[in-house]
Design goal:
It is a single chain. The protein is of the alpha/beta class. It has 2 domains: 210 residues, Vaccinia Virus protein VP39 (Rossmann fold, 3-Layer(aba) Sandwich); 100 residues, Putative methyltransferase TM0872, insert domain (DNA polymerase, domain 1, Orthogonal Bundle). It is 39% helix and 16% strand. It has a 7-stranded mixed β-sheet, with helices on both faces. α8 packs across α11. The chain is globular and about 60 Å long.
């Protein structure tokens, strides 16, 4: 069941708006609508159009009130941002002046125990953003111990992954692990309290959530497609929340801006670059420039007001070159 749209202030909103620079008659995409904070701010900043995508049907339902405030200017799409090219093409949109991506789980999802994303409240071990496909409980109860340990290590960067996986397999032999509280208790029984205050289950829950929703694959697809949709002068602004996400964004933007030399023409990342200049096949002309030499971080006031913002990293990119017309932006 969806909840009414509430006042929602997204992470690093002034910085995102400053880099996105909404303008009159521009067309923008909020690729992770969530609580609608970025969409609402963009629409208030300029008389423009915003398309908004979210894979969570609850988010789309919540957005109806915001769409009513901006009739004809906010268009909501239920789907995955990694499929934005097709979703927008179906609606006649082939170019954008800006894209914002706020990667990861939303506060609405975390705060609803019935969604199963958090260990802070008991609920079904679900974690599906779009309520389709295998749940976290399916993985926890079916994966072989070795594969489960690998998942926790690779996607959660959990150093105690083998101990945790062994404990889960032992406990699930007694009874299936179907709730967030039981999984958190199993992990807490393996790991001592972290001196930083972080809950022992944090990394394991992150790993399961990423796997259930194929989040890293979605980021790769979304970045590639966003770069193809940007018109000259268009900007891609991405907020990520942990190192696995930020690593993908950093590498993609660096490659797109020509910061990584020597990519093979067969490497998919080479698609984000422009055509080679005459006589210089090894040095293609970058289509993009970085707007953030290093990631921007939230300030102390924001992290004090919203502890979830502490790990945020913001990176941005601008298209400079039109690969079809062969011109730079005006």
């Amino acid at each position: 069941m969806s909840h009414p749209m509430q006042s929602h202030v997204p992470v690093m909103l002034p910085e995102v708006l400053g880099l996105l620079a909404p303008r009159a008659d521009g067309v923008y995409l909020d690729a992770t609508f969530g609580g609608g904070g970025y969409s609402g701010a963009i629409l208030e900043a300029a008389p423009c159009t915003v398309w908004a995508i979210d894979r969570d049907p609850d988010a789309i339902a919540r957005g109806a009130s915001l769409a009513a405030r901006f009739p004809g200017r906010l268009h909501l799409i239920h789907g995955q941002f990694g499929n934005m090219l097709d979703l927008l093409a179906e609606r006649g949109v082939t170019a954008l002046d800006g894209v914002v991506l706020d990667i990861g789980v939303s506060s609405y999802q975390l705060d609803d125990p019935q969604r199963g994303f958090s260990f802070r409240g008991d609920g079904p071990l679900d974690m599906r953003m779009d309520r389709a496909g295998p749940t976290a409980a399916d993985l926890v109860n079916a994966l072989p111990e070795r594969e489960l340990a690998g998942l926790l290590f690779e996607l959660g960067e959990e150093r105690a992954s083998r101990r945790i996986a062994h404990a889960i397999v032992t406990e699930r032999a007694l009874a299936p692990v179907t709730t967030t509280a039981r999984l958190a208790a199993i992990i807490r029984g393996v790991l001592p309290p972290d001196r930083s205050g972080m809950h022992p289950a944090t990394r394991s829950f992150q790993a399961l959530r990423i796997r259930v929703n194929d989040e890293l694959g979605e980021i790769e697809r979304g970045l590639q497609q966003a770069s193809r949709l940007l018109a000259p002068g268009g900007r891609l602004v991405v907020v990520s929340f942990h190192s696995l996400e930020d690593r993908i964004v950093k590498r993609f933007m660096g490659d797109a801006a020509g910061r990584t030399p020597g990519l093979s023409r067969h490497d998919p990342r080479a698609l984000a670059r422009g055509p080679a200049t005459s006589g210089s096949a090894a040095s293609p002309m970058p289509q993009f420039r970085l707007l953030t030499a290093r990631p921007a971080r939230p300030n102390a006031a924001e992290t004090a007001a919203n502890p979830r913002a502490r790990s945020a990293r913001l990176r941005a990119l601008e298209r400079m070159f039109d690969p079809v017309a062969g011109r730079s932006k005006p």
